[in-house]
Amino acid sequence: MTTNIRGIVACISAIALIVSCDRTKRREIAVIPEPLSARTSDGTLTLKDNIYISFNDTLLKPLSEYVASSLGRMGIDASTESGGTPLNLRLTASHRPEGSYTVEINSKSITIAAPSYEGIVNGVATILQMIPTDSSRTLRTAVINDTPRMRWRGLMLDCARHFFTVEEVEELLDVMALYKLNKFHWHLTDDQGWRIEIKRYPLLTKRGAWRRFNGHDRECMRLARVQDNDDLLIPESKLRINGTDTLYGGFYTQDDIRRVVRYAAVRGIDIIPEIDMPGHMLTAMENYKGISCFDNIGWGETFSSPLCPGKESTLEFARNVYAEIFDLFPYEYVHIGADEVEKNNWERCPDCRRRMRENGLENTEQLQAWFVGEMEEFFDANGKKLIGWDEITDDELPGRATVAWWRSWARNAVNKALSNGNDVIICPNEVFYFDYGQNETTLKKLYEYEIIDPSTELDLRDRIIGAQANTWCEWIPSRERLYYMIAPRIMALSELCWSDPSNKDWKRFSHKVTRHLPLLESRGIPYRPLDITAVADYGAHNTEPQPLQASYAYTSPIDMLFVSPTPGSTVRYTVDGTTPSVTSQAADSPVKVTETTDFSLRIFTANGKGGETVASRVTIAPCSPADTDARPTGLGLEAVWHDYAGDICSGIEEAPVRGTFKTSKVTIPPGVKGNIGLVFTSYIDVPRDHVYTFALNSDDGSQLWIDGSLTVDNDGEHAPRTVTGQKALAKGLHPVKIYYFDHNGGTVSLSLVENGHETIIDGEMWKM
Ligand code: ACM
Ligand code: ZN
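Above: inputs. Below: predicted complex with acetamide.
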């Protein structure tokens, strides 16, 4: 190459660099949550064999120990002995929002500077993510300036339904810190177990922390067997054999609690203990008298029988328990729960009736509000702020309480709380429940959620202090299952709470996730592999893999390519209905499909662990013939409304009929509400011989039948969900039936999908 040409090339490269600098350089930083501002430069820093941690304030000493142990786990020696690559922790005097930090990586050292301890913790998380998990140990030089959007970035763990040990909780706190989550909401008591030692009431844990296997335990064990999934087994370490009795459980002593509190504090995490009352209190009432309305406690119509707010002894019990809680947790917030209270007993109980009479309370809703108000006064007198689930907005709302909005269907709770001057934490179950399946509450759905609804008045927005995910553990008996449910969703939660909406990008985020799964793996943290993707008719369409569909249809043989986007994992499949095992056929090259085939597919990670099994039918058949005898006389569909409270489509037609309607598309006719079943009948008129793709969206369940065969199965109780299915249809009319059911407010629609675009089917296409 001549000098001249090299000069021209250099010049073109420089221009290209200037033009692309901002975007390309940002993308090199695979930090989650996405930092506010991150700039890399051309240099590198190669870490020496050991890291020399220094700090400018003794406050940071415990943090330096945490950093050293985290690096140690990655195989990197770190200490406060000089010599290795410097990692400087610097508390500074600048005025920046809480949690802000700056990280500077130059060719010789790393410096994390922040005006607060919490900020340094966040900077440490960034560095722990940036150090490569392989042996290269080389970082790009960079400057990152970062500030969280929300001050409440929470995760709730239910240790009552299934118990998690101190070590398991500490490990979770490490993962939270790695993703800059700063509020650990610890659900410590419930009907199924009491997990925290209360000195004044020892039976709460002596007896209440242990149980014989309940229905959830037995079902978990059954599922472990039928799904070939050891994560669902009850860990033997949590069993206690008492003669012929096997008891399950465990609890935290007050020393354990103090240990976890110290551990969390080092990682900049506040703990919010929840002692759920007045409902969800069976374990307490089973062990102490004088706190229930009647002697026979147990399950009511929907929930368990609650505490009796009419009795002074109940208030004394509650205050005594909280007094010990206040001593143990040195934070501003304590959670009272107050969700799902079945109040029938209160109507019949003489003590409750007297309480209502004496306080001028007109109904049991007001009695619940009175009880929460009494407790709030006690919290207040002890310098604590009360948090309650959004049921506390159902009647008069205590003025200073913070509301955790979980009932997706009760959006009004947020508006009521905000306009009343209360703070709100956003965690609606449709999006933020990590115990819900990830096929419905998907990573993308969570990532794309907006915490502040755009309709919220500007001057009320500051009262939305953040969001949190809730992990209820009825169906999560083990640490392994826990991570399967929360990772990688915890990453989406983190970016959602931290990064400004204008700084969110789904494509960039999903790419980052594929780089973070090995990071979790290097720390021994399990996770759910990313969903299987596929290229259907691979020979003809050598395109980007798309989300796997439940059904495909082709008129002649094709090749299917199944892909796992998770690094180091393998898709394995069977075609005989059995659950794929680690020795089943690997889908590492295109699969030839010459006849209709039902695939069962499952991802196995590098360590041989299998995920859940997913089904996909590939139909190879000529176009289904049109019904040439059909003589429709008009347009639209007939919709028959049944009074139906069931939870699958197959029972709808046997239920009593409430009315018949004519509709122009698949939708709920006006006035149809309650527990409903709908059966739509019509002919679909298709314009040509073709494979048609249908998208059936519903909340709850639905099914699409065409020419007498099930084409889309979206059955069962669930939140809004779209399922697609394909069918090859000859030009002309085809009889169609759509079944749909819902309980108290849902949605249903049917679209055609063409080139990725969905169009609702209406107008001339429906003939009846
Ligand atoms: C809740 O899910 N009952 C808060
Ligand atoms: Zn009572």
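DSSP finds 18 helices and 40 strands in the chain.
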